[in-house]
Design brief:
140 residues; mainly alpha; single chain; 7 helices
């Protein structure tokens, strides 16, 4: 039972950390890696999937927001140029979804800008996996 609760705790923490709510998934992962009860790869999978699903939830909230608040009507003209940069770079910007504070906004913007679902999900996953791999490597 302890195994299930530790792994589900990691998953839930990772999910919550990737939505607008604060979370401490990095600390949970670091602890579980340092204890050594689980293969590191398994912990990376659990944390990455949870965090990616949380980010995609935020992405979907952006999609819903775009239906009520179209991008073109929400930003002043001077900020449209910044928006055009994000549109131009597209889903690639979601590689940085792992960044604190900015990452959640990027995921929301990705949905709001209607970036394609599959590339958005893949870039988010790669960014999240990279961050968790770096944390795990520090605590092995």
């Amino acid at each position: 039972m302890g195994e299930v609760s530790e792994l589900s705790g990691l998953f839930i923490s990772a999910f919550i950390s990737s939505t607008v709510a604060p979370g401490g998934s990095e600390a949970v992962l670091a602890y579980l890696v340092s204890v050594g009860h689980y293969p590191v790869g398994y912990l990376l999978i659990v944390a990455t999937i949870g965090n990616t699903l949380g980010a995609m939830t935020t992405w979907w909230l952006g999609v819903l927001a775009a239906k009520k608040f179209p991008v073109e009507t929400m930003l002043p003209e001077r900020k449209q140029s910044m928006l055009n940069i994000v549109k131009k770079k597209g889903s690639w910007t979601l590689l940085f979804s792992w960044l604190p504070v900015v990452g959640d906004a990027l995921c929301f913007a990705g949905g709001w800008l209607k970036l394609p679902w599959l590339p958005a999900c893949l870039f988010i996953l790669v960014g999240k996996l990279g961050r968790y791999a770096a944390i795990a490597w520090l605590f092995i």
